[in-house]
Design brief:
46% of the residues lie in helices and 10% in strands. The chain is of the alpha/beta class. It has four domains: 7-59, no CATH class; 74-252, 3-Layer(aba) Sandwich (Rossmann fold); 266-352, no CATH class; 397-437 and 463-543, no CATH class. Strands 3-10-7-4-6-5 form a six-stranded parallel beta sheet, with helices on both faces. It has a two-stranded parallel sheet with strand order 1-2. β1 (7-13), α1 (25-34) and β2 (36-42) form a beta-alpha-beta unit. The longest helix is centred in the last third of the chain and has 23 residues, at 435-457. The two termini are 26 Å apart.
Length: 545
């Protein structure tokens, strides 16, 4: 959320070409036009310059364009991997486009090459994606390869030597469609970026920071930067098979199409005014469709409502909500049915909530939130989520993690205290940590983000924001732990994970504890038992709100 009421000296907006995205572009356009900054830096593709110039002409702002070239070259490899994952090398980023393919590819690479793989994909929380990226970037972590979806193209700085496309098409919900030229270019461009190259030889560091005695590029002159860039190897792009490599070559030699329209979202006050002029009981779908038909937009802008440019056969089935993936046709009907008794302002908030509609479990949880709010005007987060397997998955993982805490002190089962022997982690426990557990944690995380989003807009009804934040941190640690443990059911590196677990608890949860409570814990000797009791008390207090 952009704090438009504050004045800033400088603002920076990255990936500015996203202002044309049909679903999310309204957020970028709102930031460009609404951020109160004396100087605003827009970073992104050159294809958006003409559009930004038109927006500046409309607002009366001055536009200064600076163009930059890559400091390290990007080259297409002469050969593919010949269909063999055993040819994956250290420093590679292997790109595929489904969660199942990512984990299958990870297992095959680890089996055929002995290289460990980090993973990055859209359903992972941003915090976990950053953690996986850090593992890949760290020369000492043991993670040599990263397997990722197209989400690797934004928001992460990765030491990628070579990008490998497993395929160059992507499932759009109905069929496989070719990747767009801009998307191929964006993903390929992650290879060999200045200062971010992972050496294939652990004893040879090619990081620009090391080459320049850890001098930041921003403090160098042009000659120094050019010298370091010349010493770095180029970024490489290839594909698993020859046909995909030809598609990559074609895309990299093709110019990106110009961005011609910025997306704008409908302002709620305008919609509320229109609602008063329509018959009582008009649904959200019909309301927004009427707004679309009546809206007078500035030049070079379009409404940011997905799939409204072509009218659907049944108005009640239109896709009208602001979301990050395609919604099924009947969602608008569900929302209208559940919110008819609410004021139009609240119905609009609920209609625009970021529910992951394509995730069946997250969809059920989101509708449960809406139903509880409509019926009781307040939503207890744990109560409403129980029964969908989400809270249960978190509790299950926490139970298994506690077993590891107990077990890590004893390497020999026969030396375990008598009361511990019945609760050690065994192969049956490891079997519980499957992809379903991980999927439920991912769904729970997106649902907690939804609750926090609603708490900003309907704070009296969604009143447990601190509890949601605490659970969100727990889920993120649980996902990280699952990713570590799922790897072929092996116990390798578990001690390293668990050694940092208690410290993470202290760092991430301490903000929810009062200063008096923390001081009391210290007076009692700062023991793990006292800390556990303190956290339990804080959690119970949160549930009792």
């Amino acid at each position: 959320m952009i704090p438009k009421h504050l004045v800033w000296s400088v603002g920076v907006i990255d990936e500015i070409q996203m202002l044309a995205d049909p679903q999310r572009g309204g957020a970028w356009t709102s930031a460009v036009l609404g951020l109160a900054a004396k100087e605003l830096h827009l970073c992104g593709e050159d294809t958006v310059v003409d559009l930004v110039r038109e927006l500046c002409r409309m607002t009366g702002d001055e536009l200064i364009v600076n163009r930059y070239e890559r400091l390290t070259p990007l080259e297409v490899a002469p050969y593919s991997l010949e269909g063999k994952l055993k040819n994956v090398d250290r420093g590679d980023c292997v790109v595929t486009f489904s969660r199942n393919d990512i984990f299958m590819t990870k297992r095959k690479i680890e089996k055929e090459t002995g290289l460990r793989c980090a993973v990055v994909y859209g359903r992972l929380p941003p915090e976990v994606r950053s953690e996986q990226a850090q593992l890949f970037n760290d020369e000492e972590s043991g993670y040599d390869v990263i397997v990722a979806s197209d989400s690797v193209g934004m928001g992460l700085n990765l030491k990628i030597k070579r990008v490998v496309f497993l395929k160059t098409d992507k499932w759009n919900g109905k069929q496989d469609v070719p990747l767009s030229v801009p998307l191929i270019k964006q993903i390929a461009g992650r290879a060999g970026r200045f200062g971010l190259i992972k050496s294939k030889d652990k004893d040879k560091d090619t990081d620009a920071d090391a080459s320049s005695n850890k001098t930041h590029p921003g403090s160098m002159n042009a000659a120094q930067v050019a010298s370091i860039a010349a010493s770095q190897p180029p970024g490489l792009v290839t594909a698993l098979r020859d046909d995909s490599l030809e598609r990559v070559k074609e895309a990299l030699s093709t110019s990106n199409p110009k961005v011609e329209h910025a997306r704008v979202d409908i302002a709620n006050p305008n919609t509320q005014a229109l609602a008063q002029a329509l018959p009582p009981g008009t649904g959200i779908t019909d309301l927004l469709e009427t707004m679309r038909l009546l809206a007078r937009l500035p030049p070079h802008t379009k409404l940011g409502l997905p799939n409204l440019e072509q009218r659907a056969p049944m108005p009640s089935k239109l896709h009208v909500f602001n979301f990050d993936s395609d919604r099924p046709d009947d969602v608008s009907f569900d929302i209208d049915l559940l919110t008819r008794s609410l004021p139009i302002s609240e119905r609009l908030v609920l209609a625009q909530a970021p529910v992951r509609w394509r995730d069946p479990t997250a969809r059920k949880a989101g509708l449960a939130f809406i139903k509880a709010y409509e019926a009781k005007m307040h939503v207890n987060i744990r109560k409403e989520l129980r029964g969908f397997g989400l809270v249960e998955a978190l509790e299950d993982v926490q139970e298994l993690k506690e077993k590891w805490r107990r077990q890590q002190k004893y390497t020999n089962k026969r030396k375990l205290p008598e009361d511990y022997r019945s609760s050690i982690l065994d192969q049956d426990d490891l079997a519980r940590l499957d992809s379903t557990t991980l999927s439920n944690l991912e769904s729970l995380h997106s649902t907690l983000v939804l609750y926090m989003w609603l708490s900003f807009r309907l704070p009296l009804g969604f009143y447990q924001a601190p509890e949601a934040q605490m659970m969100k941190a727990e889920v993120e640690r649980g996902i990280e732990w699952c990713l570590e443990m799922i790897r072929e059911g092996k116990k390798k590196h578990v001690e390293r994970v668990m050694e940092s677990e208690e410290e993470k608890d202290r760092v991430e949860k301490i903000e929810y504890l009062s200063r008096d409570a923390v001081q009391k814990w210290r007076r009692e000797g700062a023991t793990p038992t006292a800390w556990s009791n303190l956290l339990d008390g804080a959690r119970r207090a949160g549930e009792a709100v």
